[in-house]
Amino acid sequence: MTASDLPASDRPRAARLKSLVVPGLAALAALAILLTLGTWQLNRLAWKTGLIAQVEERSRAAPVPLPPRATWAAMSAERDEYRRVSVSGRFRHEAEAYLFHVAGDSRQADRNRPSGQGYFVLTPLVLADGSSVIVNRGFVPTDRRDPASRREGLAEGPVTVTGLVRFPEARGTFAAVDDTARRIFYTRDLAAIARAQGLEATATAPFSVDADATPVAGGWPVGGETRLSFTNRHLEYAVTWYGLALTLVGVFGVFARQRLKGR
């Protein structure tokens, strides 16, 4: 009878310990990954909590005059996104563009707010110095996209808009193709929108302003549609990863004990 023919319980303890090296290394690598993911989620939690607090502070503050054109290039999403501002000028309604949007929240229906598919109406606001800021005047349902269906809301003459500063968003992998001929967009790509509106790039703000909920004559567009709620489940994810790490330690501990006992 050879050593390999002996029952596992009769093999030397050193051999049993050696048999744990490979599974132990694999378990250690998996544990490191799980702990890293859990720690990453905690870091994301701190970042998201700070972001939410920052957005709350900026969006609820008293409006300030829009910074002058000379400072626009220095503005950034990190410092200025969701900042509440007021700006005066004249709308160029003939250059409206439309950003596809699904209004409302299926989980919290609000009868006082619009819902369903439609568009944000993006209108150039020409300032006193000749520069332009694209203003998201608010939401209209699909059957109200044509300006002729909401003539009362096409304000003429000088206007003052109060709203939140917004910066361009990255185009998603599966985003629909924009219809620039009809000025219909599916991504808040301000450079592309400005080109379709015939605006001069050097004289157009690199950000837009989302108008607040001040009522518009005729009821359309409906402003104040900026979504300020952010999903924050990072603590839940962190607990999940750390829980899996703890489970792995327990499972491997039972496995190693059984292996050392020769089972």
UniProtKB/TrEMBL annotation:
Keywords: Cell membrane, Membrane, Transmembrane, Transmembrane helix. The keyword Membrane applies. It is a multi-pass membrane protein. CDD domains: SURF1. The keyword Transmembrane helix applies. Belongs to the SURF1 family. This is SURF1-like protein.
